[in-house]
TrEMBL record:
<keyword id="KW-0949">S-adenosyl-L-methionine</keyword>
<keyword id="KW-0808">Transferase</keyword>
<feature type="binding site">
    <location>
        <position position="136"/>
    </location>
    <ligand>
        <name>S-adenosyl-L-methionine</name>
    </ligand>
</feature>
<dbReference type="InterPro" id="IPR050362">
    <property type="entry name" value="Cation-dep_OMT"/>
</dbReference>
<dbReference type="InterPro" id="IPR043675">
    <property type="entry name" value="TrmR_methyltr"/>
</dbReference>
<comment type="similarity">
    <text>Belongs to the class I-like SAM-binding methyltransferase superfamily. Cation-dependent O-methyltransferase family.</text>
</comment>
<feature type="binding site">
    <location>
        <position position="71"/>
    </location>
    <ligand>
        <name>S-adenosyl-L-methionine</name>
    </ligand>
</feature>
<dbReference type="Pfam" id="PF01596">
    <property type="entry name" value="Methyltransf_3"/>
</dbReference>
<comment type="subunit">
    <text>Homodimer.</text>
</comment>
<comment type="function">
    <text>Catalyzes the methylation of 5-hydroxyuridine (ho5U) to form 5-methoxyuridine (mo5U) at position 34 in tRNAs.</text>
</comment>
<protein>
    <recommendedName>
        <fullName>tRNA 5-hydroxyuridine methyltransferase</fullName>
        <ecNumber>2.1.1.-</ecNumber>
    </recommendedName>
</protein>
<keyword id="KW-0819">tRNA processing</keyword>
<dbReference type="InterPro" id="IPR002935">
    <property type="entry name" value="SAM_O-MeTrfase"/>
</dbReference>
<keyword id="KW-0489">Methyltransferase</keyword>
<feature type="binding site">
    <location>
        <position position="41"/>
    </location>
    <ligand>
        <name>S-adenosyl-L-methionine</name>
    </ligand>
</feature>
<dbReference type="InterPro" id="IPR029063">
    <property type="entry name" value="SAM-dependent_MTases_sf"/>
</dbReference>
<feature type="binding site">
    <location>
        <position position="89"/>
    </location>
    <ligand>
        <name>S-adenosyl-L-methionine</name>
    </ligand>
</feature>
Amino acid sequence: MMDRPVINSDVRDYLRTEQKQLSGRLGTIQKEANEKRVPVIPHETVAFFNWLLPLLQPKNVVEVGTAIGFSAALLSEKIHPEGHVSTIERNPDMIEKAKKNFKDLGLEDKITLLEGQAEDKLKTFDDESIDFIFMDSAKAKYYDFFPDCIRILKKGGVLAVDDVLQGGTILEDDKDIPRRRRKIHRKLNDFLEVVLDHPALDSTILPLGDGLLMITKKEEADFDFMRPEKSE
């Protein structure tokens, strides 16, 4: 959905060009990714995280979906000085690129790359041990990953979920969605139906990139019904 902004394209371009740009090696990684159309978070989301994370000062951070490591690197530079990022990736090619970028950026001590399936790796974290989670992986799996994300998130912790609007097509009728995208469409709608009005959560969708969903965990709640083995 890189070419389907959910806001006016002129406003989107303004947000990407006029807000403070990244410098140094991280800025170079961002520039090269954009030139090669490697999917990394857009600059308006970068600017938002650069503002938000110093306010939250999270120490224990989990990212679901490393890709080339750009967002994990950004997170690691903006969280608490003693903070650490654990990022999960299953794609061997992306893992190799992320490792190189972490080494080049000198962030190997601040970032742990967990290689494998997110559903397996999320289960290894203790209950309420994480301050901030950034989920940017397979959109059809957000629903399935959510119970463990909420389980490991501390009360008052924040879960950011990227690309939830699908270029605005999230609003369309299922029959109008191309067959190859219907699973993503259905699962994202099911996910949003649960989280947007749940009493244990405070949620808001920001029109950044392809929609950035921000969730604060207010209290414990049982989301086990969303687990694949429960919903089948």
